Fold this protein.
Amino acid sequence: MSTDYQSGREALGGRLRELRTEAGLQGKDLAERLGWQRSKVSRLENGKQTATAADLEAWARALDVPAEIPDLQSRLRGLESQQRSWRRQLAAGPRAVQDRYVAEYRRTATVRGYEATVVPGLFQTPDYARHLLILNAELMQSPRDTDAAVSARMKRQEVLYEGNKTFRVLVWEGVLHALGCPREVMAGQLDRLVGLIGLSQVSLGIVPFGARLKLTPKHGFWIFDEQRVVVETVNTEFTLESDEDVALYGRVWDRLDEAAVYGQQTHRLIGRARASLDLN
């Protein structure tokens, strides 16, 4: 079973547990309502068993939340393929995607990432995230559960403060100038990036304009525990797990890293971008 599939199954189980606890029920109480063994409730909530569409419908109806059925079944469909259509994943709104990322980062010790157009979700402020999620919902013509998705994205950031994890992240300098939000929101986002410099678990590098490059910056990508790579395009998310693909993206990251600046140089580039917002 792929790790991507398992993290998605764990995120679905977490949502099932959340619905149960919100209803004020113990696992044994829900099992009685459904006529199931208690162990089945536990396996589904802990990602040890894949729910069927019928299981999810029964779960929601037993908790008297039938409106949750489309969201739950959308999450189940999202488990089907390593090539995940964004339109399909976002059919019930973006929160399910964010919940899956929370599970992914919690089970990962070392992350290397690169973004060419947007501040990484791990580093986003709530206001910046909200504007980007709204823009994406408009583009994809998907339902909006923006507040819940922002909350889930912020929850993902808790991993930045866990001492057993390492995050080595690169961004293209253009990320600091791309305005997908109001200028004052971008100013707050840039201040957030400055606050990350020096955090022991985080290494933030910027590939500056004018740097001599061994390759041209392309799409963003994330390498998890040197075992799998997640690549996002406009319409699809790919998970790559072959040794060759992981090694290739590792070399790409290394070559971008050779051109990146860190520490005080990073601080200066962020300060220059903030000054260009001209908020006075």
User: Anything to note?
Assistant: The chain has two domains: 1-80, 108-275. The radius of gyration is 20 Å.
